[in-house]
Amino acid sequence: MTDLSFGQPGGLPDKRQVAASFSRAAGSYDSVAELQRDVGTQLLQRLPAALQPSRWLDLGCGTGYFTRTLASLFVQGHGLALDIAEGMLRHARPFGGAEHFIAGDAERLPLRDSTCDLVFSSLAVQWCEDFEAVLGEAFRVLKPGGIFAFTSLCTGTLIELRDSWRQVDGRVHVNRFREFARYEQLCAASGLRTLKLDNQPHVLHYPDVRSLTHELKALGAHNLNPGRPGGLTGRARILGLVEAYERFREASGLPATYQVVYAVLEKPL
């Protein structure tokens, strides 16, 4: 079993490593993306009922699942799909849904000012170190009255895995996500008007630790920490992790909690 988990002990992973990891996972991603589909669907349900964008952007489109969903919802609109991972774009492009699939960075969008009515981003911006820049770019590319709808992850995500690893070696193996209060502060200071902003836990259950770590690897969301241990994790440490995680077992299996941020912001007229 390899050393698999989110994150890093200080600062986010290098963007090139993030892009490469998710590119490698493009073929397996959809087979294990239950959480991602559920969260993105809930974000769609939070969009303003009257919204009919003439141009929309799927920011961090991944395999294009929600690109295609947005295209089916907004049949009169023109769609753009952007991701930092070239492998994801190669996977998504043949299935369509957007007029253009663009390799790009959420912190520096390759789009003109005031060109989109909707920027939709689900479970992508947690990988952006400068979220203030992401908000600034969303503000820039949105038309007045446009919507930036996003989901992200905050403190408390994978707390069971974090605590179990601490029992084994005291090291940080799981990403220190931003606190929800930080999202509140940054959104309030962005110039965008907050329509909705809340934090909800999503709990998945697994028969064993290997099933969880296998899923994280298939998603491309494994340990990208600067200074992370190289090679395979030792058998003794894995057995220690399994034993520590068993303390959390419930009737449905081993829980893995994701603290999800939901936000719908509007650019003032």
Automatic annotation (TrEMBL):
Record-linked Pfam families: Methyltransf_11 (PF08241)
Domain Methyltransferase type positions: 57-150
Annotated SUPFAM superfamilies: S-adenosyl-L-methionine-dependent methyltransferases
Catalyzed reaction equations: malonyl-[ACP] + S-adenosyl-L-methionine = malonyl-[ACP] methyl ester + S-adenosyl-L-homocysteine
MF GO annotations: carboxyl-O-methyltransferase activity; malonyl-CoA methyltransferase activity; S-adenosylmethionine-dependent methyltransferase activity
Any one biological process term the GO annotation gives: biotin biosynthetic process
Uppermost EC category: transferase
Pathway it works in: Cofactor biosynthesis; biotin biosynthesis
The keyword Nucleotide-binding is annotated on this UniProt entry: no
EC number(s) on file: 2.1.1.197
Keywords of this entry: Biotin biosynthesis, Methyltransferase, S-adenosyl-L-methionine, Transferase
UniProt keyword Iron-sulfur, yes or no: no
InterPro entries assigned to the protein according to its UniProt record, in alphabetical order: BioC (IPR011814), Malonyl-ACP_OMT (IPR050602), Methyltransf_11 (IPR013216), SAM-dependent_MTases_sf (IPR029063)
Role played: Converts the free carboxyl group of a malonyl-thioester to its methyl ester by transfer of a methyl group from S-adenosyl-L-methionine (SAM). It allows to synthesize pimeloyl-ACP via the fatty acid synthetic pathway.
Family that this chain belongs to: Belongs to the methyltransferase superfamily.
Stated name of the protein: Malonyl-[acyl-carrier protein] O-methyltransferase
Species in which this protein is naturally found: Pseudomonas hamedanensis
